[in-house]
Amino acid sequence: MTARPDEGVRAEGTFERLDRRMVVMRTLVTSGIVLIAAVPAGVGIHAEGRSIPGALGIVAGGVAAIVLATVLGEYLRWRATRFRTTAQRFEWRFQLVVTRRRSLARERIRTVDITASPLHRIFGLATVVIGTGQQAASGEASVKLDPVARTRAEALRVELLRRTPAAEPEDEALGQQPAQQQAPLATLDWRWAGYAPLSFLTPALGAAVIGFLANVVSLFGPVGGLVDDARDGARQAIADVAVGGTMAVVLALVTLVLFVAAAGAVGAVLLFVEMWWGYRLDRESDGTLRVRRGLLTTRSISLEERRLRGVELIEAPGIRLARAGRVDAVATGMQQSGSSERTDHKTLLPAAPRRTVHRVTSAVLDEPDAPTGVPLSGHPRAALVRRLRWSLAPVLVVAAGAGVAASLTEGWRADLAGMAMWLCLLGGVPIAALLAWDAYRNLGHALAGRYLVSRRGAVRRSTVALQRSGIIGWTVRQSIFQRRVGLVTVTATTAAGSGGYQVRDIGEADGLRLAEEAVPDLLGPFVERTARP
Amino acid sequence: MTESVRLRPPTNRLNPRCLAWWRVRFALVVLPPVVVAAVLGILLVPALLILAAVIAVVGLAVLVLLPAWWYRVHRWEVTDHAVYTRTGYFWQEWRVAPMSRIQTVDTARGPLQQLFRLATVTVTTASAKGAVEIAGLDAQLASSVAEELTETTQATPGDAT
């Protein structure tokens, strides 16, 4: 190692490696897979005409080669990967033929997430992902350490998220706060599991279960004769229909729907248990919010409060009917949730009753009243007219098309088209109108203390409370249709979450006043007021 | 008594050479189909000549009228505290980005823009949706605007989030 000018800094942290047990862990996994694959391979080779010892020899050789290669590869990877923490930076390097380095400024580190899959947990290991809140290509802005010992992961989290005095000199609370554990902001209430089956995932899960069962049945079909039974049943049903007995078909359909619903509900609850087992939301003494949860794969997600810009309350369709909702964090550096493992990382509270939602929101934001619960001002009637137009137009177009088809054709085709038209008119129009009404009723905005609150959505309702100090620009948009009726859509741009939060179809004057009041001096200089008699 | 509240237009217009730039850009889109239709019309299907004529006439009308319209709508302004732009006609859009939140200032010149000595200044903030673009400044003005913006933003502390 050559001497460098920053030798003093280097003394702070020496390079360390990933946990050595990773070689054993990965080798075991590979061996398991290879051994399972070896059985059919051996049987196949034997069937080709080799003697049993010969086949065994070939298979054993293959297995040994693959396992050895894994050991070697993992060992090299272990040797090659090193990381260290210095006073200023977190450094990671991978040195094998080529050298890759990544260096994160410690004051920019905003997240340290710990995940442990069941396999990791057997070995007492965990995966650590260290992220900065930067917009740069996501690969550059984060480092993944897979794996380190569980205790080391925890130590890294504490070490890296501890704000250095240099970074935040004005924060005195840090020094005087003893490392005492405060009561959690929220813990799991098992009644919340009841909301899981209301998710839109339920039918899909149910269908997946049915599909899986059908596959299993068809595997063992010839033995059990179940498929034949089912086929006979289906034939019988078709025959019944031919005779005129629709009862059997209706019964079969109802049974199927019930079964899918039941299977989906069970699946959804199981998924909920896996995801949210042991859930607790804490405010740590180092100024981070921390979510811990998971049954088989445990997850610990830390979010620096300094980069929290608000929360979003999401009321998904079924869950909203049950008067419950989920709370997501609106924070900087969470934008590119491209990889699937990160999608639920921003959820602070799973679907829970509104009372809990408001309590947790006010605790998270440190506000006496949850901004997401304040009464909102509605939007002009013109917004309802727009929504009615959007939702009714497609229905009416389809109805008109069906009507034309009915008048142009004859016989059963005309009957069918006529039926479709009436279905559209009698069924579609009220539903579309209701959706439009719901979308209109949900529009709302307010200024609640330090927060700008905006709500929207038909069926799936979302209410965002955005810190006014987190607003870093405005976009005011007005289509030619909006101009005629005096509406605008105001977007508060922010570094957090999706980058911009809209207040849709607000009255022009109200929208501009809202923006002006929310962030004084930003839009204000460009607003023109003229007294009108 | 009521009060009417509205956004005032930004003070500056784009460079008048934008008219020519937009027209050439539009012509480059419209011309190929007209030429193809015309050639095919002469060689194979005479009916296509009518199509070519229709596209050409409509295109020409748009070419003459729309850019003049755009020119009246597109405006920009840089104050001591913010960058302010207005764009679009059918979907009019006003954008404001405060100086204190500006992260990068880029100038870009496409091949056509170079022909007309024009440039685009893009001001980005930490928001993925907050970028403010002024497309169609005189190249020299653009670089001086960019320079001025960069100086102002560098003087402002904080990580702009």
Mind explaining what this structure looks like?
The complex is a heterodimer of chains A (533) and B (161). By secondary structure, chain A is of the alpha+beta class. Chain A has helices at 7-10, 21-47, 52-80, 118-122, 150-161, 173-176, 201-224, 226-243, 247-276, 317-321, 354-365, 381-408, 411-442, 480-485, 508-518; strands spanning 16-17, 81-85, 89-96, 98-105, 109-116, 125-132, 142-149, 186-187, 280-283, 288-293, 298-304, 308-315, 324-331, 347-353, 444-448, 451-456, 461-467, 471-479, 487-494, 500-507, 527-532. Chain A has a seven-stranded antiparallel beta sheet with strand order 7-6-5-11-10-9-8. Chain A has a six-stranded antiparallel beta sheet with strand order 14-13-12-17-16-15, with helices on both faces. In chain A, helix 2 (21-47) packs antiparallel against helix 3 (52-80), helix 7 packs across helix 9 and helix 12 (381-408) runs antiparallel to helix 13. Helices cover 47% and strands 30% of the residues of chain B. In chain B, the strands form two sheets. Chain B has a four-stranded antiparallel beta sheet. A three-stranded antiparallel beta sheet of chain B has the order 6-7-8. Chain B is built from four helices and eight strands, in the order ββααββββαββα. The longest helix of chain B is centred in the first third of the chain and has 27 residues, at 17-43. In chain B, strand 7 (118-125) and strand 8 (132-138) form a beta hairpin. The chains are: A alpha+beta (533), B alpha+beta (161). Strand 21 of chain A pairs antiparallel with strand 1 of chain B. Chain A: It comes from Haloechinothrix alba. Chain A: Residues 78-157, 440-516 form the YdbS-like PH domain. Chain A: InterPro entries: UCP026631 (IPR014529), YdbS-like_PH (IPR005182).
